[in-house]
Amino acid sequence: MKQLSVLGVSSLAILMGVTACQKPAEKAADTAAASNATTAASADMPQIRIATESSFVPFSYKDANGKLIGFEIDLADALCAEAKLKCEVISQDWDGLIPGLQAQKYNAIMAGMSDTAERRQVVAFSDPYFTNNLVVIGKKGVEKGADDLAGKSVGAQRSTTAAEYLAKNFPKATPKLYDTQDNAYLDLEAGRTDLMISDSAPALSWLKTAKGQGFEVKGQPINIDDKIAIALRQNDPLIGKFNTALAALKANGTYDKISQKYFADLPK
Fold first, then answer.
1. What is the pTM of this model?
2. What is the mean pLDDT of residues 84-99?
3. d(Cα 80, Cα 238) in Å, to the nearest integer?
């Protein structure tokens, strides 16, 4: 993460005015002192760790070099800069995200996590930063909508809103649950499942890939009023910091710029 300087514009102007008329030795000494003050102030910034799950294109995933990238990574960077926090984003397995937060291995979770009543029993959530729909995807040319999945094997990532919706609304389907979204795609592509139910943006992103060309959305998107938010420990003061920072990013256009980068070209 980038470190932010705490020297304001007026402070810099004064510093520049003073150094302009100083002797070289005095100038060097004052420059070193200012640099040391900035470094010390940066070191005093609160340091936090944010956990994500890195198989959730376009929210959070790894590039060819293993670097974490995606909508949530860019948003985390912007939030931390706005809130003047030094942040490290780390990748964790989905099933271990909330237990790791409770064990204080990190301070927050940004991993496409839905704000649900069940999760609020053990964690707190920030204001939402994304609204999600679900979609059902399957092979092109196979006449099967999203309203009747009886007798079909349907993949979903376990412990997700999609898996919960599948269990509650399609009891006659045969669910196949996976530890990662990527593994669910692999079985769909190989024909080991008939269909898959998923958050909309990751599914639409996969349909754009070479592996997804033979598949399509079945039926209409499923609106479940699903709000994605940052998960934190209950009563953590970081909740207020992140809410304030998120509001500022939405007001100054930064949020829209990040969102457009990852979602503008997805199929509608």
1. 0.75
2. 95
3. 11
